[in-house]
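Minutes, project huddle
Topic: does the predicted pose make sense with magnesium ion bound?
PN asked that the exact inputs be recorded in the minutes so nobody has to dig through chat later. Recorded below.
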Amino acid sequence: MLEEALAAIQNARDLEELKALKARYLGKKGLLTQEMKGLSALPLEERRKRGQELNAIKAALEAALEAREKALEEAALKEALERERVDVSLPGVRLFSGGLHPITLMERELVEIFRALGYQAVEGPEVESEFFNFDALNIPEHHPARDMWDTFWLTGEGFRLEGPLGEEVEGRLLLRTHTSPMQVRYMVAHTPPFRIVVPGRVFRFEQTDATHEAVFHQLEGLVVGEGITMAHLKGAIYELAQALFGPDSKVRFQPIYFPFVEPGAQFAVWWPEGGKWLELGGAGMVHPKVFQAVDAYRKKLGLPPAYRGVTGFAFGLGVERLAMLRYGIPDIRYFFGGRLKFLEQFKGVL
Ligand code: FA5
Ligand code: MG
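Predicted holo structure (tokens), as shared on screen:
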């Protein structure tokens, strides 16, 4: 029995099998245990002799089991180490990462330029009321100037639009056609002097082409205080041109009509690299009627007038037109066409 048992133990392929062998020989009902139980039936002399034999066999089996167990455990460990081995010299797996949208990049660049000039950036709602988008900006209903902005009107019921101080705003709703309504909202809630820029998305019911989108972005600027003049406006746009295109850039102003400024101008900046003027947007001195509308609204809210004896300038520029130049994009419709191949080009552009 000993020979056979030792061979079986030596050949056990895993711990499982070894456990079964241990039970077979040394377990409660094991072969050796049975033999031991049989001892009491033997005469004394024989019992002693046989007892010694069995004890020796037991010790041999236990030693063999232990040795095999150790060997199997070592083999298992070695195998696991081999299997789980990490080759630290292998190249890593690239993680997918997104990137910022080119319009976000352009917007951030613009905001940073003005922040450095002491402007604060604020934002306003995209759903707007007829009052803030038009009336308060001196564009009453039936005024021909309303045709300058083809409007998406909203018919939804139950939408609560908040005014500058959280009050409910009455009247017809629309998708803002420009960022200028934030001029009025900001002035109602603040007292001059201040300098702000307002980046934001605007909407126009327009046919699209290579330079026109129905949804695009503007950056509004508003500076109000005592003694603000057209020269300050020119200075601000000049600083913008310098920051964008370097010391060889310059600015150009041409008269144009906007109901909420007087005088009004459209401005362009010289793009030295491209050798051409870039029409950026509209600007002008804040119209007295806008200040009056702001103070009238403040009065309705129980606030004292704050815009007597001050002047201000405002401007609004198109972000897409600038980004097209900045990144060499030939068609405005690429921006929101949703093609990953286009957007992926801007990964890491910061
Ligand atoms: C305005 O929207 C005025 N609120 C700007 C302003 C602000 C004037 C403050 C005076 C004082 P306008 O409609 O011209 O103006 O638009 C301003 C700029 O937005 C344009 O110069 C152009 O760069 C851009 N823009 C206008 N329409 C589109 C369009 N459909 N797609 C892309 N960009 C546009
Ligand atoms: Mg237009």
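Observations noted during the meeting:
- The mean pLDDT is 93.
- The two ends are 81 Å apart (CA to CA).
No decisions taken; revisit at the next huddle.
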